């Protein structure tokens, strides 16, 4: 697994973060579960990370020859209870060697909700806080 993160890795923080609306989020989560590596699919979805492999795993704890293409880091329940925020996408060296891009990987998951990364609404970004100024007492 370590070699998946050597040279050739592309990691992009999505700014502003992409927000997957409620109905799209439900459709994506259902499809990711149906296409899980243990069910003959190529996705391994956990609450904070969705991983895309090039082929299904050989068994429950045995990825066999399956290669990790990349990961999508997400937060469930933000900004509202039923939405999902996509905040980072990483393509491994294997993924880049096989012509995957950040957009390709994100779009491969988001298509289950009829979305692309470009189509996703974006999180509102608040302006940064004012700098702290220390004032002496007295």
Query: How can the largest sheet be summarized?
Result: 5 strands, antiparallel
Compute the CA-based radius of gyration. Answer: 18 Å
Report the uncertain regions: none
SSE class? alpha+beta
Number of helices: 3
The largest beta-sheet arranges its strands as: 1-5-4-3-2
List keywords for this structure.
138 residues, alpha+beta, TATA-Binding Protein, globular
Structure in words:
The structure is a single chain. With 138 residues, the protein is of the alpha+beta class. It has a single domain (2-113), classed as 2-Layer Sandwich (TATA-Binding Protein), CATH 3.30.310. Helix content is 20%, strand content 26%. The protein has helices spanning 22-34, 93-97, 102-110; strands spanning 10-20, 43-45, 49-53, 68-76, 84-91. A five-stranded antiparallel β-sheet has the order 1-5-4-3-2. A hairpin with a 3-residue loop joins strand 2 (43-45) and strand 3. It starts with 9 loop residues before the first strand and ends in a 28-residue tail after the last helix.
């Amino acid at each position: 697994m370590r070699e998946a993160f050597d040279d050739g890795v592309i990691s992009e923080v999505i700014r502003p973060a992409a927000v997957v609306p409620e109905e799209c989020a439900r459709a994506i989560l259902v499809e990711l579960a149906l296409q899980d590596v243990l069910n003959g699919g190529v996705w391994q979805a956990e609450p904070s990370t969705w991983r895309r492999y090039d082929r299904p795993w050989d068994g429950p704890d045995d990825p066999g020859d399956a290669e990790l293409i990349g990961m999508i880091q997400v937060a469930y329940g933000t900004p509202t209870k039923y939405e999902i925020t996509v905040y980072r996408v990483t393509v491994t060296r294997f993924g880049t060697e096989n012509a995957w891009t950040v957009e390709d990987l994100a779009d491969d998951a988001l298509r289950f909700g009829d979305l692309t990364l470009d189509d996703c609404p974006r999180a509102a970004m608040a302006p940064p806080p004012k700098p702290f100024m220390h004032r002496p007492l007295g």
